[in-house]
Design a protein that fits this description.
- This protein has 486 residues and is α/β, with parallel strands linked by helices.
- It is 38% helix and 13% strand.
- An eleven-stranded mixed β-sheet has the order 1-3-2-4-6-5-10-11-9-7-8, with helices on both faces.
- Helix 9 crosses helix 11 and helix 9 crosses helix 12.
- The longest helix has 22 residues.
- The termini are close together.
Length: 486
């Protein structure tokens, strides 16, 4: 059963080939046997999962099942989940049990899905390798010497290894698309405001966006039907009708205009990654698409702009963790100042502290205009680059990452690590949607093709990705570890 896509599992449940309890027990068994190697889960909610599976089977027996009733999923441990440990991968929240559900979790429950547990991540979603978690690094199922990408590395690894057919991730600067690329799965970052952020522990509020991670574009479309839409509790949620994301999947691609940004194919791109991406583009040409080169001239400013804006927002968002109201509290503080300083110093990891310091500096008097305001002006230019490009083409394509997954511990320099996000960060600054789909291998490790569209173009992106997956089998390849069937 773990070899099936989410779409196939939903069809199997509807046809009575197996029950939700049988499927859930099978996946829980795989998690118990295999996750000791991967470390993709922080919390496994076996008892709750089996109870939800029984409820789903009962609903199906009553004729009340929906498209996702009884399908197991797993949730990045950044989404508040009622009655379940919600850690954000941090010592600061190591004992926090949420009293409520995030909107995404709430909507998945309403759709009848079964949550298997909470997935590992870079602390407070800050990282590109999933090595920054207080609960240990996650390993890539394709090669356990390699990182799975980040920050949604646990989500990507669990799906790739067949521990869950789908997972929820968040993407602030590429944290769905890059780990999806590294682990050979499909990951969709929706338009900013398309999916509610309410109940997601914040990193950078103007950049964070939740989205689905699964084996195929069709799977992501099913999940988008459940999670997208206006949420009055989220002031950044967009009041816009929600389409059926599965409706356009089969639309032909004849006449599709593809743009290849020249800035995405320059220095720093590994030759084998470029070769895989260009071969994928040839598949689209065979399906009737036309290809042309375009320019996104302010791309090289994306990383410096992002690493001013995101840490500034993180500095503000993480100021609430003071050792008083909730979160980690140091032992025997001598006074209030000591309580604040030691609780934060001991509760946060090195990368989180680094970004808080950067953000606090850029927001301080005398530096706000020079750094934060200027970065926001650059952000507007980056957004305009995309809008101009979409006047000429329907979608943009390029690599999701300049390299395949790198070895654990290989990128110790923070700046080198930040450069891993060079092709993904601008998408969050502009607020547009993007999807990464498997498109080949480099040195035995997966390569992801990134497809970008204008605001609210998720149906088109899913269609473009689905048609590629109908013509190729990269998304069906599984790592050796996933073949374990006992």
């Amino acid at each position: 059963m773990h070899d099936k896509t989410l779409t196939e599992l939903a069809a199997g449940l509807a046809a009575g080939e197996f029950t939700s309890r049988e499927l859930t027990e099978h996946l829980l068994g795989r998690i118990e046997r295999l996750d000791g190697t991967l470390n993709s889960f922080i919390t496994v909610t076996a008892e709750q999962a089996l109870a939800a599976a029984d409820e789903a089977d009962a609903a199906r027996a009553r004729g009340e099942a929906g498209a996702l009733t009884g399908v197991p999923v797993a949730i990045k441990d950044l989404f508040c989940t009622e009655g379940v440990l919600t850690t954000a991968g941090s010592r600061m929240l190591a004992d926090f049990v949420s009293p409520y559900d995030a909107t995404v979790v709430e909507r998945l429950k309403a759709a009848g899905t079964v949550s298997l547990g909470k997935l590992n991540l870079d602390e407070f979603a800050m990282g590109s390798s999933n090595e920054n978690s207080a609960f240990g690094a996650v390993k890539n199922p394709w090669d356990t010497r390699a990182v799975p990408g980040g920050s949604s590395g646990g989500s990507a690894a669990a799906v790739a290894a067949g521990l869950a057919p789908a997972a929820m991730g968040t993407d602030t600067g590429g944290s769905i698309r890059q780990p999806a690329a590294f682990c050979g799965i499909t990951g969709l970052k929706p338009t900013y405001g398309r999916v509610s952020r309410w109940g997601i522990i914040a990193y950078a509020s103007s950049l964070d966006q939740a989205g689905p991670m699964a084996r195929s574009a069709a799977d992501c479309a099913l999940l988008m039907n459940a999670i997208a839409g206006l949420d009055p509790r989220d002031s950044t949620s967009v009041a816009r009708g929600v389409p059926d994301y599965t409706e356009e999947l089969a639309a032909p691609l004849a006449g599709l205009k593809i743009g290849l940004p020249r800035e995405y194919f320059g220095d720093g791109l590994a030759p084998e990654v470029e070769a895989a991406v260009r071969e994928a583009v040839k598949v689209y040409e065979s399906l009737g698409a036309t290809v042309r080169e375009v320019s996104l001239p302010h791309t090289h400013y994306a990383i410096p702009a992002y690493y001013v804006i995101a840490p500034a927002e993180a500095s503000s968002n993480l100021s609430r963790y003071d050792g008083v109201r909730f979160g980690y509290r140091c032992e025997a503080p001598s006074d209030l100042n000591d309580l604040y300083k030691r609780s934060r110093a001991e509760g946060f990891g090195e990368e989180v502290k680094r970004r808080i310091l950067i953000g606090t500096h850029t927001l301080s008097e005398g530096f706000f205009d020079a750094y934060y305001k200027k970065a926001q002006q650059v952000r507007r230019l980056i957004r305009q680059d995309f809008l101009d490009a979409f006047e000429e083409v329907d979608v943009l394509m390029g690599p999701a990452s300049p390299t395949p997954a790198f070895d654990l511990g290989a990128n110790k320099d923070p700046v080198t690590m930040y450069l891993q996000d060079i092709y993904t960060i601008a998408v969050n600054l502009a607020g547009i949607p993007g999807i990464s789909v498997p498109a080949g291998f480099a040195g035995g490790r997966p390569v992801g093709l990134q497809i970008l569209g204008t605001h609210f173009a998720e149906p088109r992106l899913l269609n473009v990705a689905h048609q590629f997956q109908q013509a190729t089998d990269w998304h069906l390849r599984r790592p050796e570890l996933a073949e374990e069937t006992a």
